[in-house]
Structure formats: C-alpha cells, structure tokens
Amino acid sequence: MDNKGEHLQQTITVEKQDGNAFFSNPRIPNTAELPPESVQILKGRGMDENGIRDLGWHAVPTLHKPHKRLSKQELATNGQVDAVELLSSLLGDKRLVRTLRTMDLSNGCGMQCDTCLADAALPAKQFSYESLERLFLDNKFLEMLQPDSLRIGSSGEISNNPRALDIVKMILTATKSLDMKRMEQEGKHHQIKVFTNYRHITEQFIDGLIDLAKTEPRLSVCISLPLNKIDSVNRQFDQYALSKSDIFGPFADYRDEAGLIRWAGRTTLRNVLIQDVRHTQPLYMGGRVLSNDQLKRIRDMELDEIYYDSTSRDYGHRGFAKTYLNPDGLWCMVHGTGFTSHTDRSFTIITPQNLDALSYLPYHYDFPTPPNWPGGKAVNNVDPEKLRTEDFTTQTQKPRTIVK
C-alpha cells in the first residue's frame, strides 16, 4: 500500500463504568500517542515510557462521554461543573501565566456532523454561569490568559449552553483590563473569539452574536458550516444569510454546480467571519468524509498535491504544545502527525504533579511565549520540512482513530 495516498482508519470503543469513560485509567488503552520529540523531552524530565503512557493521552479531550445525546435540561441538572473548583489546584501557578488561549463551555459538541474537524464527543458536562463569573473575577485566572486573545469554541459547541450569550458578555466585561493593557502596549484590542457551528436552531443565538459584534469591536465571531455528505445544512444557511443581505449579501461569490452559494468567508462586519469547509480545502481532505460536490472538485488533483497540503501544516506544528480548558479539566495539547500517531492532537489533563514535566514541552510558536513556561519555543532545532521528508521515506502511517 502506498502510505502517501491512504489514510487508514480504526475505531476504538471506550467502555463506560458507572456512567463515566475512564479515559485516564491506565487499564483503558490510550487513544493517542505523543510524537517522539515530546517523548524524549519528558524522559529528560525523569519520566519513563510507562509513566508517560499512564498520564493518559487522548485523541478527544473528554473524560465523561455519554452513551447517548443528553438534553439541555439533563446537562443543566446533572452536568454542571464549578470552574473555580476545577482549577483550584492550579490557580496561581506561575508556570501557567499567559498560557491559556482556548476554552470550551462544555466537554463536547453534539452537532454530529458527518465529518467533525475536531473529532468532538457528545457533551456530558458544562460550566455553570455562576462559577465562570467567579473564575473571571479571579486575578489569578486572568493572569493565565494570553495577552492577545481568548477563543471560546474548539472541541465543544458554545450554543449548547442556554446562557452562552450572557457568558460572552460577561467575559468581555471581565477581561477589560487585558484589553487596556494590550491597547497601551500594542495599540490593539484583546479579542474574545467565538467559534460556533451553524444550524437552523442556532440562528437566534447567531443573531445575538452578530448584534453584539456590531457594537463590540473586541468580539470576533466565526460561523462554521459543516462538511457533510448531504448539503442540507448549507442550503439552510444560504437562506438564512440571504435574509440578512446587509451582513452577508456582498460576499456571496457565486453558486457552484450543486446550486449552493460559495461564501468568501467575509461579511460586511470585520469581526464576523464564515468558515465554509464544504469547498475544496486540502487541509481538511485527509481521512475526512467528503460530499459528492467536493469529491468532484478534487477528482483531477494530483494525489501527492492533496497529501502534501493535508500534512504540511501538521509538520510545522509537530511537537508543540499549548493549554486548553473545558469542564473535564485543564489540558495539555500536543500536536502530532499522521505518522507519529493516529490522531493529529494528543491531550492529557494537567495536574500540579505532572506540570513539572509537561511544562518543558515547547509552547506553540504561533502564539505569544508565556514568560514562565520552561519549555519556551525551541524544539530540538529540528527542521519541520526535513522531519517531514524523513517520515515520508522511513515510516508507515498509523491509522486514524475515531472514538465512539
């Protein structure tokens, strides 16, 4: 088999005990692996291979995955998490100053796209509004936030929370000090970025975000359209967007062969964007389920061209880490590739004990360097392009895993 052109796929079913998925229990197989550079760094901090494995590395950042979709009422009744209590053992740790730039309000999404770009689980836990309000009033937590932006929306869906819009408004108010500091130092706003998936049932929430974006330049909204086998959601979005021609109309580039509008990504508001992954974007091709329309678009492309584009970014990120917060905990996320693991990201929960080693992983170079993160940004002086070339010729690609 030509491993340049094939993305293998395997499925791991994580069993439940007492209603919870024991992802971090060593008896349950890990669903992700670290790239070798990261393993060497952790070994240099006194960990052996068993200790590294027993940290629990997961392809999907969730410890509590329900058997079935929970209603919003069930989440509100049984799934509430106190954000301050969750982070109590880490607040004030100087190594975490200016490390956090991404968080979710819940530990899953629930939109159930045919192809999930984040490999998200169904949600089982969500932060309570009251606890988030207390968390963002805590200066020790504000010190954890990166100086340029905070993104809400990664492996979770913000609209699952019935008070999502109130939470966004609260965070904008609570982070004004970060905005003032950045304006003084760089002449730029500290941004609150919201990433949300469009569905017909979320239109009222998106309307609220757009109205807020009109008056709040610090808010950046990205509306994502799904990469589904059938483009019914995209057709609904076309109808929704055309009904708001003052916002979306000027950027309806053209209709494709399927009669769907090709959105340019922009809107008349500089801080409202559209992510349309239905159209040809090689970054999302590897291992993904493609619609018939997209298959037509890539049919005549050279296979090596598709494979190169779908992995080149992975190699630029390989071995770099950053932190991520959701209701299961504060996670350390390490980027990998299709050669070093069967997933592009590996997650483990940060604790005061393992932070002694994890903080020596190099922080992601795209973002501001945390002042007290021991790993800095250096990554063994390895050229990513050289690394990529070596992997193409010497290694066999591992199967991509879907966690069910």
Please tell me about this protein's structure.
- The chain has helices at residues 36-44, 49-53, 72-78, 83-87, 129-136, 139-142, 164-174, 176-186, 203-215, 232-242, 292-298, 303-317, 355-358, 384-394, and strands at 9-12, 16-17, 20-21, 80-81, 100-103, 126-127, 149-152, 191-197, 219-225, 252-255, 261-263, 272-276, 321-326, 329-335, 345-349, 400-403.
- The chain is an alpha/beta fold and 404 residues long.
- The protein has one domain (9-403).
- The chain has an eight-stranded mixed sheet with strand order 12-9-8-7-5-13-14-15, covered by helices on one side. Strands 1-16 form a two-stranded parallel sheet. Strands 2-3 form a two-stranded antiparallel ribbon.
- The longest helix has 15 residues, at 303-317.
- The radius of gyration is 21 Å and the shape is globular.
- The chain starts with 8 loop residues before the first strand and ends with a strand.
- The relative contact order is 0.17.
